[in-house]
Each structure stands twice: as C-alpha cells, then as structure tokens.
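Weekly sync, protein design subgroup
Attendees: M.S., D.O., the rotation student, P.L. (late)

Item 1: inverse folding check
M.S. brought a backbone from last month's batch and wanted to see whether the design step gives back something sensible before we order anything. D.O. pointed out we never logged the input encoding, so this time it goes straight into the notes. Structure tokens as presented (715 positions):
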C-alpha cells in the first residue's frame, strides 16, 4: 500500500507546503488554511518542493495535493494591496512546467484561480469527483495572471477557456475531464494521486508540457469564431467592465502567439486590471460580504441548532421563506389563519418547486424530497417543537403583535421568534411577549429564494445567543446577513426611500422617468428607479407614502407625480401600466406618453419651469442621496460599518458590484467632492440635502469611510 510507504522529511518541509516521500514520489501538500490560498509561503514552499524533486535522484516524480477541503483557492487576496514578493506565482508555475521529472496535481475540493493555474502547469491532473475547477478572477476584476489564460486556451480550446474565464463559474471534475482539463477522476487525492503517479512512472510517460499542447488550437477558424462571439457579448453582458475584454484579448493572443509572448501579454493585462478601480471595488465587495457576518462587538452566545422551522403566513414572502428553509434541508410547518389561505400558501410553495423542475433546475426526486419536509397547519400549538418561527404576515403592527402573543404562548422556551417586517419596530413586537430576548427581525428580500441579502434586525433586548444563531442560520441558508439596528426601513429601504425621493425631485424639475432610468442603468444598475417601481408594484410605495403622511413635515418637498399615477390604477407590470406601458403579458415596458402628460401637468400645478438634466448630473444626485443616507445610518449606529451599507446595496438593491457599494464609491471619487455636491444641492432644498454629520466629520479629518471599516473590524 502506498500509504504505508510514507516517510516524513521535516527538514525540507515548509510551514505552508509539507513535503513527504512515498517511495520514489515526493508529495507536496499545500497547507494554508482556511482555503490554501497561494500566498508567499506557499509559493516558496512549492519552489522548495521542486528543488527537492530535481536534486534528489531517488525522487522520480512530484505529486501536488492540498490539505483539508481545498487544493488551492487562488492567489492570496490579502497580498493584493501589498508590494509583490518573489517568487511570483507566474514563475512558480513556469518552473513546475519546466520540471524534468513529472509533476502531477491531484485535486480535491477547490482548485480556483492561481490554484488551477498551478494544476494546469503540472504535467498531469487527477481530480476527485465533485471537486471544483475554476478561473474566477473576473469576479475580482482580474484575469488569470500566472499563465492561466494561455494554458487553459491550449488545454481546452478558446471557446471553453473563454466560458471558464468570463463566467468565473467553476467546472466540476466530471465536466473538466470531458473538456480535457483533467486526465483522470479519483476518489481520494492522496491515494488515487499516488496510484496514478506510479502508473505514469511505470509507463514511463515522462513530462508533458501544457504550453506545448496544440491539438485544441488546430482549427484557427473555430478559435476565431469563439473569440468573435465572446466579443460580441461584451456590450450587453459586460458593459463597462475592463477585465472581460482583456480576457478575450489574452485568449486571442494565446491562439496566435508563442506561449512566452502570450504570458508577457497576460502579465501586462493582469497589472492593468490590478491597478483599476474596478478591481478595488470588486475586492472590497468580496471582503465586505465576508466581513458582515463577523460581529466584532458581540461577546458570548452559543449557536443553536435548527431542525424545525415554522413560517407564519403563506403569501409571496412567506412561501418564499418556506422554500429557502426547505432548500436548506429544514422541516417547515406553514401556518395560516384558515384552511383556504393555508392551501393557497402550500400551493404557492409547490408551484415554486414545480417551476424549478420544469426549468430543469431541480430533479423531480429532489423537489419531492424537499416538499416531503413541508406540512401545513392552522393551529399554533403545532409549532411547539419549532426551533425558529418566522412571521411573514402583512405589515400591520397589531396583526404582528397578535401573532407573537400566540407564538409566546405555544413555542418552546428556547425557540427563536423572528419577524420579516420591512420597517416596523421589532422592539414593539417583542414587547408583547414574555421573552423579548428571543425576538429578532429576519428581513428577507423578494423573491426570497433568489435574493441573497438578509437584514438581521437586532433589537436592544435580543440575546447574544439569538444573534449568533441568526447569523449561523443565514450562512446555512446561503444568505448574506447584515446586522441592522431599528429604524423605519432598516438599512436598505431607508436608503432607497431617500434616493427615490431624489429621483422624483429630478422628475418634477425636468428630467423624464425614462431619462433617469437610462442614466442610472448607464452607471451599471440593472434597472432604474421607475422600472423598479413598475416591477415591485407602485401600490406598495404608495401605501408607505400614505402611512408616512402624518409624520411628514409641511416644509418637506413632496412630489405627487407617483400618487397621480396610482390614482389611475397604474401600478406597473401587474396592471399593464405604470411609468411604462406593457403589451399584454410582456415584462419589458415602453415609454408612455400619458405619463409625460401627467408629469407636465404636475410641474405646472406646482409652478415649476422644467430644466434639463445631463445623465451625469442625474447619477451624481442619485448617488449623493444614497451616500448621504448611508453615512447617516452609520452615524446613528443602525449600520455597524460603512461596509455593511455597501453590502446591503450590493446584495439587495442591485448596486453595480464593480463600483463596490455607495460608500466605497464615495471614497473613490473623494468625500470632499460628495460633500460639495450635497452643499450645492442644498441651496434648492436644504431640508432634503442636509449633509450627514459623519460625512462632514470625515471630510474635516481628511478620512475615508474605509477608515471606519478597519477600526471596527479590528475590535
Ligand atoms: C488569483 O488567483 C489571481 C491569479 O490568477 C494570478 C496571480 C498572479 N485568498 O468564502 P469563504 C478567505 S485571484 C485569501 O467564507 P467558503 C475568506 O476571506 C483569486 N483568503 O469560504 C474567508 O476569510 P475569513 C482567485 C481567501 O467555504 C475564508 O477564506 N480565487 C481567499 O464559503 C473562507 O472563505 C478566488 O477568487 C483567497 N483567495 O468558500 C476564490 N479565498 O474567514 C475566492 C477565500 O477571514 N474564494 N479566502 O472571512 C472563494 O470563492 C471562496 O472563498 C471558496 C470557499 C469557494 C474558496
């Protein structure tokens, strides 16, 4: 057995790459938890392994594996903003390929980015079934920078390489073998890797250099067609993005130029990407999405386990939440007030699974297994074993309090009681129970199974155990949890109501809804505010405006145009008319002359002479409103850090990821500039454009929002 032959050689073992010998094979294990990122120590360790393999005549081959659940998840992103330290990954890969003794990579878990580049530089590749092989650099605004674009094109051809690099999605081992990216499937990286290496040695297979492989490039016309097809998609799929365009260029060079020229070209493009604001923004988004799940100010608390979940209310939101729970393998009991509502709720859930099956996103068997964990009830006592209950009834404090009184009476003492309210005071809901420490807000976004954001609303009474459990649950549900304190609208909806008001003011002052939507899309949002209103239903925001009317200051500028539309029954897509009109059943709207007439009449009524707006000014005002309110939320302690605001807008409101979120973007354009804009706008509406005290302070101290992220994260 190969395992019994293992010898350990601590004298050559580097901290991040363990070396051991198995007969005439040197095994190098990348060990850099949590994800085996290829940092400086790993690169140095790999070179030491190569050196050992080259110089020791008893070694005939080098086997590369990873420890834990990963082969290697890519270059170490923590080194990105530091000076580069030799050896560079590109040189390590080239030396691996140049080895005179066969190098075999045996992949288990993730081989991503630089991790896959190492594997592609090796002479042979084995992958454990189910492992993931990908080049996700594009998601960080980068491209493979260690020869990956050149080797992948040679190994799998331009079309597959482009798909791998432009999508950033990993291939499974099974897909990778189909493409020729790996040579062998296995069950265990070490055991099967050793067996494969022995087999290669026995057959005297020798080295096989990826850079020399030409068979996949044999048909230049096919490669060019793949490149042209990818370029044609740039304006629609990757509008305004740098790295996708450069990835295509690199593939083209790989098809036409010698390997060394291609690598030089790739290195130059990698550096261009690395220096771009897009990379900084995407890196910030990646790191911020992980940082939000950390709660630096929280002490203690034990994570509870979840098996059974109750969901109160089977409307769109409740049904969606039930699906999220079922998808996470939890047992779900849906409670409704009467049998007809219960049947309607249960069939909504079934419909979601039916659609997934018909779209081939889920197999019939898996859908059936998930639905088998669902039951319905109209009696609260059935929820006595639930570990968590999420209430999703309509937004009415009294109705929610009534639900929580029932839950308090029937749920077990350590159950977590959560409300999905999108603006009500959770403390007032908790107050009707005998256990306010167990009450929390879990604000899902619609459609709940799709949207990754989960605002975790934390009332002051909530216990540490409840909070950490909610965050642990979010991870299990595949959501990005962001802590928020209590205020009307929490982080996301509060900011949205402000930038919507900025958009409506521009509308009344002279911009058309179509011009505003266009400008906002031009910045990178998928939709503008008026399109979103049509999708969400104008009646929802109308109800909120009516609710807030009693608290509205008479001095506040209130634009009534949206109300005029709603009074006509024009609520958007669902009524076939809103800011746009929709041909029967169509989801794409057309500008509506009648809307422009209403807008003109309203301007006349309030005595506004319309003026023109450039797209640039529209975006500047829209974002200034967003940034200012984001700063207010941090100042008030509703959001823990600026990065929490960024993640809410990125994960829940379609803020373009390559701008990193509103507060990251504000840092980039410069806070003095943002403040100057707000002060200028304030001349026309001082109540709305009140600069946030935090923004003023940061400008005075010549600081950035990012400085507050660092402060809080190091607690
Ligand atoms: C690249 O390779 C460039 C090269 O082509 C060229 C170079 C010249 N480095 O996501 P998780 C941390 S670009 C350092 O929660 P999961 C992460 O921050 C890179 N750290 O786990 C977190 O830390 P913390 C291309 C990293 O199981 C912890 O690991 N590669 C890195 O849900 C756990 O992460 C990628 O883009 C890294 N590369 O998912 C892959 N990756 O606990 C990026 C993660 O302190 N990574 N961390 O918050 C991923 O996609 C996921 O992390 C992965 C695991 C799927 C691996």
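Designed sequence read out in the meeting:
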């Amino acid at each position: 057995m190969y395992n019994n032959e293992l010898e350990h050689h601590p004298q050559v073992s580097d901290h991040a790459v363990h070396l051991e010998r198995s007969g005439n094979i040197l095994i190098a294990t990348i060990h850099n938890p949590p994800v085996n990122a290829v940092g400086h120590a790993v690169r140095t360790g790999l070179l030491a392994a190569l050196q050992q393999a080259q110089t020791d005549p008893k070694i005939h081959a080098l086997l590369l594996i990873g420890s834990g659940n990963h082969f290697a998840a890519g270059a170490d992103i923590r080194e990105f903003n530091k000076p580069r330290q030799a050896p560079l990954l590109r040189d390590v890969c080239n030396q691996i390929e140049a080895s005179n003794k066969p190098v075999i990579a045996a992949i288990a878990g993730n081989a991503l980015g630089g991790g896959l580049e190492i594997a592609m530089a090796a002479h042979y590749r084995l992958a454990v079934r189910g492992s993931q092989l990908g080049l996700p650099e594009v998601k960080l605004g980068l491209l493979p920078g260690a020869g990956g674009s050149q080797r992948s094109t040679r190994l799998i051809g331009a079309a597959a390489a482009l798909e791998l690099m432009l999508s950033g999605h990993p291939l499974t081992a099974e897909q990778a073998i189909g493409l020729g990216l790996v040579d062998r499937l296995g069950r265990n990286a070490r055991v099967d890797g050793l067996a494969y290496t022995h087999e290669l040695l026995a057959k005297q297979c020798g080295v096989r250099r990826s850079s020399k492989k030409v068979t996949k490039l044999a048909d230049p016309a096919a490669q060019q067609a793949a490149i042209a097809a990818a370029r044609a998609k740039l304006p629609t799929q990757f509008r305004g993005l740098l790295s996708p365009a450069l990835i295509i260029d690199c593939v083209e060079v790989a098809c036409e130029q010698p390997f060394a020229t291609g690598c030089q070209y790739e290195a130059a493009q990698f550096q261009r990407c690395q220096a771009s604001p897009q990379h900084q923004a995407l890196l910030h988004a990646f790191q911020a999405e992980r940082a939000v799940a950390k709660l630096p100010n929280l002490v203690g608390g034990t994570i509870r386990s979840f098996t059974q979940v109750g969901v109160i209310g089977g409307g769109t939101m409740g049904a969606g939440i039930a699906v999220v729970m079922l998808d996470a393998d939890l047992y779900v009991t849906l409670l409704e007030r009467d049998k007809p509502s219960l049947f309607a709720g249960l069939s909504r859930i079934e419909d979601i699974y039916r659609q997934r099956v018909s779209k081939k996103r889920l197999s019939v068997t898996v859908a059936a297994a998930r639905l088998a964990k669902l039951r319905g009830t109209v009696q609260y006592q059935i929820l006595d074993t639930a570990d968590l209950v999420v209430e999703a009834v309509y937004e009415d404090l009294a109705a929610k309090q009534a639900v929580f009184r029932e839950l308090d009476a029937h749920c077990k003492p350590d159950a977590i009681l959560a409300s999905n309210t999108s603006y009500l005071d959770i403390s007032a809901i908790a107050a009707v129970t005998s256990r306010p420490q167990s009450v929390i807000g879990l604000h899902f976004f619609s459609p709940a199974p799709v949207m990754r954001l989960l605002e975790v609303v934390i009332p002051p009474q909530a216990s540490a155990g409840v909070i950490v459990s909610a965050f642990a649950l979010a991870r299990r549900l595949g959501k990005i949890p962001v802590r928020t304190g209590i205020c009307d609208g929490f982080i996301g909806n509060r900011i949205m109501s402000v930038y919507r008001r900025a958009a409506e003011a521009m509308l009344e002052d002279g911009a058309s809804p179509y011009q505003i939507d266009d400008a906002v899309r031009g910045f990178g949002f998928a939709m503008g505010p008026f399109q979103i209103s049509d999708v969400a239903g104008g009646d929802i925001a109308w109800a909120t405006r009516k609710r807030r009317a009693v608290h509205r200051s008479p001095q506040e500028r209130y634009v009534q145009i949206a109300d005029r539309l709603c009074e006509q029954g024009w609520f958007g897509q669902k009524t076939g008319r809103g800011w746009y009109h929709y041909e029967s059943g169509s989801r794409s709207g057309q500008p509506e002359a009648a809307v422009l007439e209403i807008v003109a009449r309203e301007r006349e009524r309030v005595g506004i002479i319309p003026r023109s707006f450039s797209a640039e000014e529209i975006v500047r005002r829209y974002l200034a409103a967003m940034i200012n309110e984001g700063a207010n939320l941090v100042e008030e302690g509703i959001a823990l850090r600026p990065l929490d605001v960024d993640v809410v807008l990125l994960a829940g409101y379609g803020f373009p990821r390559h701008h990193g979120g509103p507060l990251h973007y504000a840092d980039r354009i410069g806070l003095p500039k943002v403040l100057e804009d707000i002060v200028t706008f304030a001349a026309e509406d001082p109540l709305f454009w009140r600069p946030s005290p935090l923004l003023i302070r940061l400008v005075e101290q010549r600081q950035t929002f990012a400085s507050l992220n660092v402060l809080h994260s190091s607690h």
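Discussion: Residues 34-35, 37, 73-78, 89-90, 110, 112-114, 117, 136-137, 140, 142, 144-146, 148, 290 surround (S)-3-Hydroxyhexanoyl-CoA (CB under 6 Å). Residues 1-14 have pLDDT under 50 and may be disordered.
Action: P.L. to compare against the previous round before Friday.
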